[in-house]
Each structure stands twice: as structure tokens, then as C-alpha cells.
Amino acid sequence: MPEGDTIYRAAAALRTALLGRPTIGFRAPRLVAPFPSAGATVASVDSHGKHLEITWDDGVVLHTHMRMTGSWHLYRPGEKWRKPSTQVRAVIEVPDWTAVCFNAPIVETYRVGDRHRPPVAGSLGPDLCRPDADLGECVARLVAFPDRDTPIGEVLLDQRVACGVGNVYRAEVLFACRLSPFAPVGQVDPVTAEALITTSARMLRANLGGPERVTDRRAPGGLAVYGRAGKRCIECGTVIEASRLGEQRRVVWWCPTCQPAPGPAGGREHPSG
User: For residue 150, is pLDDT > 50?
Assistant: First the structure.
């Protein structure tokens, strides 16, 4: 499941392999135009949350959004791909490297300055993976979230507040801050909001160096509550629970003792429901 740290690492790897190199091949089976011209040099590779943009010096931009299924891979020439070609959404070939995007739901190209270009970063919050992210801006966006009854477990996934937090990190951050995922955002005071944002940034940045996520070294597998329904809480020994939350019905995990619910349990949906 790609989250902000995954895309940040992908962009860094793509930057190392592609930046400053001429394009000797490009294909994207579902796109019509524009394509980078033969020989165009990769000028930049940038990430923002789950968005990734590759820009060529001829003004063409490739934008991908990973959502739940997408991934970028790098291969040496002739190396066997780890996924079937039927899942390919874009291929970029430069000397010594081939970059392949698999299963990304959004793959599109446009030109720099195109008025129809989607505002990738315009409406999104700061990217918590970046060391220069404005955490104060993220806190302000969380505190001012318009629908005050929205559970904080949903708000943390809203990329308009801050980019980078996905399903793993929301569970781990809420546990670390001892806050129920069902607490309405309107009940989250500024001090707690700051703790949520700073903890999110700390966890994301601590995991930029490798694929194994560790948020709490006391926990088996390095995760305190995520994926541990039915197991004992590392803090208090209570059995960890799981439920579906929000319109997308994504599963959230929490300890009912360390993260007590703000009110009746009504409205929760068991994952098997």
C-alpha cells in the first residue's frame, strides 16, 4: 500500500536513475498525447503526497497518482520485470535504466503552463515527508477543518490537510497520541492537533530510508496497532479492535483502552460487515 514515504522514496530513486539523461523510449498504453520527444532530457522528478511528476526539458510533464494500487519500478536493461506487462501504465527508457509504472489509476501528460494542467499541489496540504514542510500550516488546516463532526480518523487521510498519511500511519499516529479514530475533529484542541501533525511527520521521515515501516520498536513487526486486530496492546494488554470508517470504508485499528471512544460505539462497522 503506497503512502507518502513510499512515493517519496520512489521519486528519489527515479531522480537518481533518470535526471539529466536523454529519453530513448517512452510509452504509455492508455495515453494519446503529449509524449516527450525522442532525446528529451528528464529535467525534474518531484513528489507531493501520492502524486509524482516527471518533467522533460521539452516541456512535457507526466503525472501519476498511486492511490491504493500503483507503483514505480526501476530495472536495468534486459532485467525481468516483477509484474506482468498487462499492468503497465507507463515506461520511460534512458541509458542504463528503464522506469516502469504499474497499476497507477491516474496517468496523464500535459505541457508546462497548460491551463488545463491539474493543480497537483495547489489544493493539497504540505508534504510531511519533506524536511521543509510547514507543519504549522498543517495544524492550522486541521484545526479549521470545515466539517467539525468528521472523525479525526478520516481527517488524517485528507490530503488537503497534510500529504503523506495513509492507512498505516493514521492508525499508528492516533495510537501514539492516544486519540480515538472516532473522535470528531471539532473536539481536537490545537495542542492535540499539533501533536498529531508532528507525530505524523516524525514517523514518515523516520521511514524514508527503507521499505520496512517501524513506528514502535516494542511491537512485533514494528507497528503498534495496524493489522493487529485481536492481539494484545503493547501498552496496556487490551485486545486491539478494528472497524471500518468513512465513505471509503477503510479499516482502522485502535486500542479501546489507550484510545477511548468519545461516545457510543454506534456507527462502527466491523471489517467483515
Answer: yes
